[in-house]
Write a structure and sequence with these properties.
By secondary structure, the chain is mainly α. The chain has one domain. 79% of the residues lie in helices and 0% in strands.
Length: 87
Amino acid sequence: MKKFGVLLFVLLILYFIFLIRQDIIDSLELKREKHRAATSIQQAEVQAKSLANRLKALQNDSYVESLARTRLGLIKKGETAYKVIGR
């Protein structure tokens, strides 16, 4: 009878260890997922801030004009464009 009680006790301990082990594994996985999500959110916030700054800059006429002149080679009416040939 004493052996049965010890065996039952050992089985219960093993069962609880198994249950706790799975909870620990699940908890660690959730922590990893939370960290990945937080990193993703942080990157999205940085990108949103960068885009907001870019949008604000594009609302400035002189900035848009300088972009048009440097990137597209546009000129104002009455100006003469010169192309410098590299060395």
